[in-house]
Amino acid sequence: MRQTCGSRSFPGAVSATQAYLTDHLVPSSPVCQTAIQHATALLTGQGVRPGEAARGAFGLIAQTVNHQATMLAYIDVLYGYALLAAVLVPVAFLLLRPGEDRAPAGAH
Questions:
Q1: Which residues, in sequence order, are bridge partners of residue 73?
Q2: Quick check: 22 and 5 in contact, CB under 8 A?
Q3: 42 versus 101: which is more confidently predicted?
Q4: CB atoms < 10 A from the CB of 26, how many?
Q5: Three-state SS for 7?
């Protein structure tokens, strides 16, 4: 498994999205270091011991990435279904054939 900013990629439907999100999230990155510092300060402010707060910060970041990856995966699926509907609705209308022996609606 790939180690990224203290979190491990999860197998499953969101792993590709997680890989996309964590491409630049490496421990030497200033963005990652800032996120770890903020999460550590948050946990320390809530009474967690500093050593445990540092480990918990990695967990918070991993949880945030997982939530974001899941949301992006749901959005991708929604776009896929929207595209499928956009293609199939016109096909349904093309398959409809008016019957010759039926009277038009509203006729007496």
A1: none
A2: yes
A3: 42
A4: 13
A5: strand
**How many whole angstroms separate alpha carbon 77 and alpha carbon 68?**
14
DSSP E strand stretches across 9-87: none
User: What is the average per-residue pLDDT within 16-33?
Assistant: 81
Q: In this predicted model, what pLDDT tens digit does every residue of 61-90 receive, in sequence order?
A: 889 988 998 898 888 889 989 999 999 999
For tokens 């974001």, name the residue: 68
pLDDT over 80 (residue 99) = no
Amino acid code (one letter) for 27: P
10 Å Cβ neighbour count for 65?
Answer: 21
Q: What angle do CA 96, 81, 13 make, to 5 degrees?
A: 150
d(CA 97, CA 100): 9
